[in-house]
Amino acid sequence: MQVSDRVDGVPPSGIRRFFELAEEMDDLISLGVGEPDFSAPWSARDAAIASLERGETSYTANRGKRELREAIADHQAEKYGLGYDPDDEIIVTTGASEGLDLAMRALVDPGDTVAVAQPSYISYVPGVMFAGGEPLPVPTRAEDEFKLTREVLEDAGAQEADALVYCYPNNPTGATMTGDELEAVAAFCREHDLIVLADEIYAALTYEHDHTSIATLPGMRERTVVFNGFSKAYAMTGLRLGYAMGPAKAIGAMNRVHQYTMLSAPTTAQHAALDALENCDDDVADMREQYDRRRNFVLSRFSEMGIDCFEAAGAFYAFPECPTDDAQAFAEDLIQEKKVAVVPGDVFGAGGSGHLRVSYATGLDDLKTALNRIEAFMD
Amino acid sequence: MSSRAEILALLRENARYSAEDMARQTDLDPAEVEDVIAELEADGVIAGYQAIIDYRELEDERVRALVELNVTLDRETSYADIAERLAKFPEVEGLRLVSGDYDFDMEVEGDSMSEVSRFISEKVAPVPEITQTVTHYVMESYKERGIVFGDGDDDDRLSVSP
Ligand SMILES: Cc1ncc(COP(=O)(O)O)c(C=O)c1O
């Protein structure tokens, strides 16, 4: 059967090949995983189970359960100082993934240019393309520790773009941005009238400074949609729950797509999410503490091995320089010879080449063994 | 977090971490880690280190009982006096003063049920201040000090994901 040109024009993800290589290996230790190694907090799982026992298996309101939207609004206000109205400025989505897709379809017209800060999560460019937009890669630089700056935006020609999508704390680099650093990006977007799609799914996982949302900066709320979710902070990836927050007009347009294509996000997961917001702060703090220790461990080991790695301060990734020229070959050989999986940085787009994404969403014992194997591999 | 709190958190997670591995997880260097541990031990904060054992996995399973003790005090005898006396028995693995229907919660371990029963009837019950004992034999242990017994969680995540 014929597939559409739109889909045909989007290449398959480069991560696929590493997945296939890794799947063939026994005793593989994977530092290539983009999701938490924890299970969702029991309290949240228990709430989901209880909702099933009560028989709450119907659709919810399109935008998500009212109670959940209120809890999201309160949580975001308390943690990040964001103020969104649960009535018309918040939509609960099937993962942040759906939120991003909705925003592309609701806010991007065919031919619009969307600047994509890279290296980045792999769904942004295809998302823009599926919506008929033109992605414009904005490579960030190792010497800036993969932060977005006015200079890299200008160098990429983002002043001509209609929108900017980025993610901090970042997947794959682990980079974070402070409020001051974000203000330079905000000023650029105000000056050149760009909409901002801010993927803040790792906001709860910062280790050096608190997360700042760009939507709290002057003049930004009206041009920003913020994406967040339960996958990372609450280790709920499989429950598929996220949310988007923004001006009523944007969220309304997104809901127009959502009400036809999704109806509502998974009901059971909404129950888990509500409990997560109400009862799981300590679980999040615990997981965060463990990630931070592993981060210190990984960075220390890299420095002992003489591998160059900036101090990634968020998410659960380190993004060291590859010790050899060809990161793809390094990652392939490492799987085959030492049974350790990492992901070469160029899979994540411009600016990622010559680097490796090393996920520390793995228990310390495995992490330690894997790093020893990398050390042995380099000899 | 203070370095004491940090080291305690690490040791509670795994008391067999090497000083090097603890240093790598914190801002301390190995010598500092050793110093903090020495200080915690000297201050009596760390009273000891033990393995958490799932006895079901061993050939010779130990018998354990939780014993509720009621006591009466008099002018000369305090809870601490009774506790001191009981704690000296090597059979007593744990001893806590608790609120509620009884006074002490005592954990006893032995090679057999008869050994444990004999210990309670011959050594514990006759203590003059002890007015009542209720013994609960442990039939199955599912979780000890934060560690869930069993097969462990299999990692069912995709081996590589975005
Ligand atoms: C940066 C980023 N955004 C979005 C997602 C998708 O999140 P969700 O599970 O909420 O769809 C991921 C998952 O890996 C991610 O890393």
Automatic annotation (TrEMBL), chain A:
One of its GO terms (molecular function) is pyridoxal phosphate binding. Pfam families: Aminotran_1_2. Its cofactor is pyridoxal 5'-phosphate. Residues 27-374 form the Aminotransferase class I/classII large domain. It comes from the Archaea. Keywords: Aminotransferase, Pyridoxal phosphate, Transferase. The keyword Isomerase does not apply. Signal peptide: none annotated. One of its GO terms (biological process) is amino acid metabolic process. Its EC number is 2.6.1.-. Homodimer. Belongs to the class-I pyridoxal-phosphate-dependent aminotransferase family. This is Aminotransferase. The lineage of its organism: Archaea, Methanobacteriati, Methanobacteriota, Stenosarchaea group, Halobacteria.
UniProtKB/TrEMBL annotation, chain B:
The keyword DNA-binding applies. Keywords: DNA-binding. One of its GO terms (molecular function) is sequence-specific DNA binding. One of its GO terms (biological process) is response to amino acid. It comes from the Archaea. GO terms for cellular component: cytosol. The keyword RNA-binding does not apply. Residues 70-140 form the Transcription regulator AsnC/Lrp ligand binding domain. This is DNA-binding transcriptional regulator, Lrp family. It comes from Halorientalis regularis. The lineage of its organism: Archaea, Methanobacteriati, Methanobacteriota, Stenosarchaea group, Halobacteria.
